[in-house]
Protein: L-fucose isomerase
Organism: Bacteroides stercorirosoris
Amino acid sequence: MKKYPKIGIRPTIDGRQGGVRESLEEKTMNLAKAVAELITANLKNGDGSPVECVIADSTIGRVAESAACAEKFEREGVGSTITVTSCWCYGAETMDMNPQYPKAVWGFNGTERPGAVYLAAVLAGHAQKGLPAFGIYGRDVQDLDDNSIPADVAEKLLRFARAAQAVATMRGKSYLSMGSVSMGIAGSIVNPDFFQEYLGIRCESVDLTEIIRRMTEGIYDKEEFAKAMAWTEKYCKKNEGKDFNLPAKTKTREQKDEDWEFIVKMTIIMRDLMQGNPKLREMGFKEEALGHNAIAAGFQGQRQWTDFYPNGDYSEALLNTSFDWNGIREAYVVATENDACNGVAMLFGHLLTNRAQIFSDVRTYWSPEAVKRVTGKELTGMAANGIIHLINSGATTLDGTGQQTNAQGEPVMKPHWEISEAEMEKCLEATTWYPANCDYFRGGGFSSNFLSKGGMPVTMSRLNLVKGLGPVLQIAEGWTVEIDPEVHKLLDERTDRTWPTTWFVPRLCDKPAFEDVYSVMNNWGANHGAISYGHIGQDLITLASMLRIPVCMHNVDEKKIFRPAAWNAFGMDKEGADYRACTTYGPIYK
Ligand SMILES: C[C@H](O)[C@@H](O)[C@@H](O)C(=O)CO
Ligand SMILES: [Mn+2]
């Protein structure tokens, strides 16, 4: 059972004894309990455990009670707070002053006592003190004896809590670079200051010789390796695809079998490097047993490693997948080509959804005209306005096959605790493991290949670093689409047919970057995108504002944007206000 941060609930109250406070004690504490129940019933951590809440020991009426609550929250491992009230309270005395906690305030909309007035007053305090907080105010007046949480309030509470838990879960963890810069990809020039100041994440790095050392000296769990090999024989090796390499570059059967053993060992070692392994301590490898506390990692692969050793596609794909030989489990976050910027976008998506992530090159925009020219066929349905080819060797989760289904039989990518053994086997069955293209991967290995089923709502995002500005986030909600199999074959075989493909169609709107499918690709800030199941643009925007990362491109309805109340002070144009606020506040850990 992993250790996760908790959400602190702060019931605040009018401190006046002799009637007022007494009349509100029960109501205020009941509201706090209702919020805690809402969060614990609806939100889970990555391991499937419910997000825990901690409620202050008493209502908070004066500053001494604020301080006592702050001390309790520190002891209990709180990482963010929600203040709730149904009455007037003394803002500067009762507000949460912790500079690192994401914070929200729910002012009960009941007119007998001025909860909304406190909400506005304390949000002014938060703005004045440079501690921006999210304001939650229900649209309809509630009766004083109504302790229920209205739907609009619940939606904002949960949106805040999802993002706040993501922020708190990242704090204190590591990003592990396995290797270094891959083929001059800027995203793999890892910027430790960004990780430290914006995410509270420490950057760790290991040279790739460490994988060879551990293989050579047997620093891995031999029993697990045997179990993994048997599983790989049963589910992966049997789906080995045609070898498209030139004869001179084709490995023998014996060499390929050695490669399978190599990449399975490599996968175990990469996982151990990320999170450690107590079995290694039993084997006498105390230091290696510790791991790097990595919540995300990147594997350089190309080129030096892949010019000589089998590639990392199997390792990256399986680590990013919600299952392996040990069964169904939380997906890891591993960026191929050590593109740490894309790794961050994958991490955001994973923490907000508890689902595995797709890592892709944003490879090709295909206009309807170009498709007609090369295939003689029309793009139809949701693909009719053009499609974007998402494809990358390696780090695309096998959950991306779309072989998991919801109650309606529609393709989905599920949190791991909802995936069945049968669905795991379907994802594996839908994946072909082609011998690696030895023109690119001289050391051989295998690449996962599948075609994502269409009809899944997805969100593609990307974190970019801009000198002089800092980090910015891009977001494109859309869908996976299926196209005529013959069209797919022709288009896919023009590029890298041994790699996994997802055909993506963004939701278009009247914003310039979304006026057509071409514009989405033409405005994308790097070669990669992280693709998460679901339309999570609103959550990403809320999360980005907590981290002070401006959003430079998105196709989310402006009315659905939920950011700290202080953002309103930076102007009515939401995008400009976002930039001005992020610049003013700066990173939360600086
Ligand atoms: C062709 C290169 O080897 C691939 O790695 C390339 O398609 C990329 O993924 C670059 O991001
Ligand atoms: Mn790539």
